[in-house]
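Researcher: Next entry: Thiamine-phosphate synthase (Gimesia benthica).
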Amino acid sequence: MQHLLTAGAQRALALAELIANNSNDQVTNPRHLLAALAHEESRAAEILQSHGIVQNLILQEFELTLPDSEAESDLFETEVPLELSQALYRFPQLKDVLNRALEQASQTSLPVEIGSEHLLWGVLKTEGPHTDWLVNQGAISSDSLAASFQGEHQQAGDPIDVDFAFRTVPATVSDQTNTFRTIDAAANRLREGLRVVEDFLRFTLDDAHLTRLLKTTRHQLTEALQFIGQDSLIASRDTLNDVGTAISSTSEFDRSSLEHLVQANLKRVQEAARTLEEFGKLISVEAAAIFKQMRYSLYTLEKSVLTCVSSQHRLEDCQLYLLATESMCHHGCGPAIREAVAAGVCIVQIREKEMSDRQLLEHGRRAREWTREAGAILIMNDRPDLAVAIDADGVHVGQDELPVREVRQIVGSRRLIGVSTHNIEQARQAVLDGADYIGVGPTFTTATKQFAEEEYAGLDFVKQVAAEITLPWFAIGGINAENLPEVLQAGATRVAVSGVICRHEQPGQITRELLDQFTR
Ligand SMILES: Cc1ncc(COP(=O)(O)OP(=O)(O)O)c(N)n1
Ligand SMILES: Cc1ncsc1CCOP(=O)(O)O
Ligand SMILES: [Mg+2]
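Model: Predicted structure:
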């Protein structure tokens, strides 16, 4: 008998493989699969979420990295049904997981399709660090999961002995009404979901840049539907006979926070865009191409929105950021960093241009100790590799250095990535690239770094960023106790400084003077 995996289970396995590759692991193991299972709105993800286990937690715990949206969206292109024996061959380290998933799936009276929830069962039944962690995190175990399965089995009828899982209905020209009906429903779902996300961006995040991006997506929908024909959509609408209107999933009402709500709606709009793209292909290639573009924009938007929200939490009280350079400090970096963090600096960057790699490694490790003692965030300038080596909390890169995507490959998903920006286009791009915070400057002339006259972005740039970007950002360049009021007046709520603290005889005292101004 053939045992097929459902499309959702196949995608989870393929995603697990990408996560393994991305995390530089040789073979796909149960932890990669667990992270993949938590990824989309599958039954497994729903179960995990109901136990408070979301994907980010898993990624952080096991230091795993997701592939980029493009690679991820290719998973949906898989159209060949995957048979269990092929999966066993392709994923040798998941042998136990797959066999247990089969055992569980075979208990149902439906055709033996291995779904995402069966894979989750298999993961829970296969002992490893992930099982202990899952039990500790959310009290989820194979026993607690068994209860969910029992509920399902009781509802199912007698076993049906069929050996295929993919049942397809061929679309022909005579199916056009149904195709229009599907497109109409998906377009409405997309429009409504976009509105929810837009309201979040406008009223909760208050982010003009991301709101604009979302509006563009809404306009694209209108544009694409013109290729389909509004009249045909309305003519095919038959809401009263839609069997789906009475069905609601339990997760539909489970919205524990605004972030959860917006994320669920972003997933919903991506799914709707996918339906539109697939069914759109039967009516208009132009429309299908626009829907595809929309789907990609929505992946980017999701990443930017979620990064923005999580960075706002992580950098919530960070007003003053110190760039520390050994040679600029009177008594070396150690006393300056320790005094500054004790006085309230909560993020410190190691910025050394003259040290050898060995010196930088030693110096970075010491800075790690000083900052850790005080609970401050440590960032390594320019060097993602050294950020990992010294276990810094993040890395800062300039416009000519490695792009965020490449830096992310090196530092993983947990570390912060800061990007320098010198004009509003760069700032907008950094948000879309997935930066966790941005540097905004140079604001005033500075002795710390050389800039040509025309490179000074000034207070106008600070004002532009303040007007439209809510990803945490730090005004930088020549800021001191005298000009700080102007910077705050221009809309900055966070600033990064170097010379004013490093060159001061009493770094703690000047730190307090600067911080005092934020509360006035
Ligand atoms: C917080 C912060 N903002 C900007 C910079 C400048 O980075 P970059 O443009 O790469 O220049 P260098 O600092 O590497 O000379 C920064 N380091 N930190
Ligand atoms: C590294 C850097 N990038 C833009 S301005 C600047 C120097 C910040 O130092 P200071 O606060 O001493 O002007
Ligand atoms: Mg740099």
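Model: Note for the record: The first strand starts at residue 4 and ends at 5.
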